[in-house]
Design a protein that fits this description.
The complex is a heterodimer.
Chain A (H helix, E strand, L loop, with lengths): L1 H6 L4 H28 L18 H6 L3 H34 L1 H16 L2 H12 L5 H8 L14 H26 L4 H8 L4 H30 L2 H6 L11 H11 L3 H29 L1
Helix pairs in contact in A: 2-13, 4-5, 4-8, 4-10, 4-12, 5-8, 8-10, 10-13, 12-13
Chain B lengths: L1 H33 L3 H4 L14 H9 L2 H32 L5 H13 L2 H14 L6 H25 L3 H9 L4 H12 L1 H17 L2 H6 L8 H5 L10 H35 L2
Helix pairs in contact in B: 1-13, 3-13, 4-7, 4-10, 5-7, 7-10, 8-9, 10-13
Classes of the chains: A mainly alpha, B mainly alpha.
């Protein structure tokens, strides 16, 4: 019987898929669905045992009257925009350089990738140490050139930008690799034709490379937006949303609501709103991929 | 023309060098701090090159802190995560690469859809689920939760790898009287060792680096994973930077090692997870 199932071409693929599907159901799909249920209850760490009352959409209504939540959306958009501009600008420049200079590319690529694979905790601590007021490298360099040192992570006006710089450092390698791979798919004929017609290299970049790269650029921007919006690990390590909520992104606010204030139902409602924002981006993603194919 | 090329080359190389410095500076600063003697770690002004060299922080970290215990815990989690995810992802990847069956496209789309759910969205229900199963504060909590992070990526990675291996090799084994599973075991898997190794390295890096789930799902000091033990050097009013940077260097070492030996595969895999449908 078992042998029959394992050897039949009809049933075998389902048997092979089964362990994966069981695992994915229990650790991803089931929690995902349960989240909607949780978001409609006033679940707190204090009433985990006794059971939480059903409150319908109250958590959501409360959310849109919560000034801290609205503030967090603003902080998130600054954080996403700042990171995106930096990561995309640098990533595109690096991708172009690596693509057209294959010699040095081999050495430099592996160096540039390093931040992308380090743990968020190590990245966070490294940058806290870089930003340290007295002993940090950045303020040392500022003093060296005669500038005043800065309280990077404790200054309300600087903290978010300090996090953005650290995040650009961490995320640029992905954009670089992604766009470099996309550049490889562009055929060489249009460039040769342009050369014959006497185009300058700026013109062939502007009128050949950019248009052909556009779908890849769109996908890249969407992925980076999604990841940056959902990110809070380095923020948790570096500022915990402070000083005075200056770095409280939406993801960070979710973490604080659920696991510091113990409002699990409320935090869960925040994640659903975040999910909707992600879903919107995912629709854009599939639309772009569809147009590319 | 020629002067233009030289000028351009100079610009390109100086930009690459500048960006490499930007990339390496934080890592250099951590490393250099970790080998300075205590008195020099917090001396003002800080020294860019250490005046004297010392391994005292490494000695302290290895002998007098919970870091070694953390490494052991992390290795237990990592090995279990890698084993479970590698087996289930390679079986599924093989099915997707080699069989046509009703529902295949829907399943592929579903796995991709689950991959797009950001972990941050699932962290609260996952916490509640593990609590209900009484798995909170056990390493099993992490072994299960990390599957959510690695499984979809590994499945697509291995599917693509199996697709790159010619079917004919397997078919001739089938003709010679091998069963399907026999052919998978004797023919395809041995040829897929680079793909399996890449997948295993990914599973390792993800579980070694993760700390949010660990922070939320574990409470006892003895269970702390390596990343969590790093947090013990950060006290309310003081951070022991000498010891912390030494422990950070220890934490970076295996990841950098894998990057050095498997660079090409890792980069391809990182991109595959984002591009391939």
């Amino acid at each position: 019987m078992i042998k029959g199932i394992l050897n039949s071409e009809r049933t075998l693929p389902y048997v092979l898929m089964a362990p994966l599907l069981v695992l994915l159901f229990s650790v991803t799909l089931f929690p995902f669905l349960w989240n909607f249920y949780v978001s409609m209850h006033d679940l707190k760490t204090t009433n985990l045992q006794s059971g939480a009352p059903f409150v319908g959409l109250a958590n959501y209504f409360r959310l849109f009257r919560d000034p801290t939540f609205l503030h967090s959306l603003k902080i998130s958009s600054y954080f996403v925009l700042g990171s995106m501009v930096g990561q995309f600008g640098l990533g595109l420049l690096l991708a172009m350089i690596l693509h057209y200079h294959p010699g040095p590319a081999r050495v430099f690529r592996v160096i540039f990738v390093i931040p992308w694979i380090l743990s968020a905790l190590i990245i966070g601590y490294s940058w806290i140490w870089m930003y340290n007021y007295r002993f940090g490298l950045i303020n040392s360099l500022l003093r060296l050139v005669g500038l005043r040192p800065i309280h990077w992570l404790n200054d309300i006006r600087m903290a978010l930008w300090a996090l953005v710089i650290a995040n650009i450092w961490r995320g640029t390698p992905f954009t670089m690799l992604f766009l470099e791979a996309a550049l490889k798919t562009i055929p060489s004929e249009p460039y040769e034709a342009a050369k014959v017609d006497g185009a300058t290299s700026w013109q062939s970049f502007r009128y050949i490379t950019l248009p052909l790269l556009r779908p890849a650029i769109a996908i890249n921007l969407i992925l980076v937006t999604m990841w940056t919006f959902n990110l809070f690990d380095t923020i948790l390590v570096m500022t915990k949303g402070g000083p005075a909520n200056a770095t409280l992104t939406t993801a960070m606010y979710m973490y604080k609501s659920a696991f510091e204030y113990g409002l699990l139902g409320y935090g869960s409602a925040i994640t659903i709103v975040m999910l909707l924002i992600n879903a919107l981006l995912a629709v854009l993603y599939f639309k772009t991929i569809g147009r590319r194919a | 023309m020629k002067r233009g090329t030289i000028l351009r080359k100079t610009l390109v190389y100086s930009f690459l060098a500048l960006y490499a410095i930007f990339t390496l500076l934080p890592i250099y600063w951590v490393f250099v701090t970790s080998v300075k003697p205590s008195a020099e770690v917090e001396s003002f002004p800080p020294t860019l090159l250490p005046h004297s060299f010392s391994l005292e922080h490494y000695e302290f970290v290895f002998l007098k802190t919970r870091v070694v215990r953390g490494i052991v815990n992390s290795l237990i989690v990592t090995v279990a995560v890698t084993a479970i995810s590698l087996v289930s992802a390679s079986l599924a990847g093989y099915a997707l690469a080699r069989f046509r069956f009703p529902g295949k496209n829907a399943l592929t789309a579903a796995i991709l859809g689950l991959y797009l759910i950001p972990p941050v969205v699932n962290v609260i229900p996952l916490f509640l689920l593990l609590r209900t199963l009484r798995l909170l504060n056990t390493l099993w909590a992490l072994i299960l939760a990390y599957q959510a992070l690695v499984l979809p990526l590994l499945t697509f990675l291995l599917r693509n790898y199996f697709e790159s291996i010619p079917r004919e090799l397997e078919e001739s084994a089938l003709v010679d009287g091998c069963t399907r599973l026999g052919a998978l075991w004797r023919v395809t898997l041995p040829l897929s060792i680079p793909g399996l190794a890449t997948a295993a390295i990914f599973a390792f890096i993800f579980s070694w680096n993760e700390f949010i789930f660990a922070l939320l799902f574990l409470f006892s000091d003895e269970l702390k994973t390596f990343q969590l033990t790093l947090m013990e050097f950060v006290k309310l009013y003081r951070i022991d930077w000498g010891a912390l940077t030494a422990a950070m260097v220890i934490g970076m070492a295996p990841v950098l090692f894998f990057l050095a030996v498997a660079q090409r595969y890792l980069i391809a895999g990182l991109l595959g997870g984002a591009i391939k449908r």
